[in-house]
Amino acid sequence: MAINSEVPAVDVRVVRARDIDQTEERRLLTATRKAIVGIKSAESSAAANATLTAAQVLNGFLNTTAAATITFPTAAALVAGLPGAVVGDTFTFYVANTAAAAVTTLAGGTGGTVRGNLSIPALKSAQVAFTLTNVTAGSEAYLAYTVVGA
After folding, report:
1. Residue 60: beta bridge partners?
2. Do 64 and 95 touch, CB atoms closer than 8 A?
3. Which domain holds residue 128?
């Protein structure tokens, strides 16, 4: 059996951490849509019915402390909050209902559709996966899929 001794050329780029231009790396990641970069993790809270802002959702966490209906932001607001947004961009948001005996109900904002369990029982949490389905100005839309913990 013959062994091919030819080795194809490989283009290797070595980058040291201190040489990375974070602005350029973010641009490249955003341009190739491999990831949404820069979404923060901060907690908001609600003790009554509330319509969330895009910033609250993009920060990642909401703690509810009483019975409440939580309405997600409009699709237009979410698209505006994600510079360079394209159809298919996805991010995750978490809701913790820390009320001892109250239900938190989730609802979509204008242009939003929420699927899954929309009620979070007392002392339970939900994971909400948002996916942008339209980013055209005036027609923005998203799907939000919810999974409530057992």
Report:
1. 42
2. yes
3. 39-148
Look up residue 111 and give its DSSP letter: T
| Reported pTM | 0.73
Is 33 within the bounds of a domain?
Answer: no
- Asked whether the beta carbons of 128 and 104 are under 8 A apart, the reply is no
**Residues 6+ away with beta carbon under 8 Å from 50:** 68, 70, 71
Structural domain count, the chain: 1
| H runs (alpha helix) in the chain | 22-32, 54-59, 75-81
Residue 94 has pLDDT above 90, yes or no: yes
Query: Which pLDDT does position 47 carry in this prediction?
Result: 87
Q: Please say whether the beta carbons of 144 and 115 come within 8 A.
A: yes
Q: Are 111 and 140 in contact (CB under 8 A)?
A: yes
pLDDT at 10: 45
User: 64: which 2 tokens?
Assistant: 């509810």
Task: Report yes or no on 43 lying in a domain.
Answer: yes
Average pLDDT over residues 33-38: 44
* Residue 12 domain-assigned (yes or no): no
Report if residue 66 sits inside a domain: yes
Integer Cα distance of 24 and 93 in angstroms: 27
Helix (H) or strand (E) holding 39: none
Summarize pLDDT for 112-136 with one digit per residue, the tens.
999 999 999 999 999 999 999 999 9
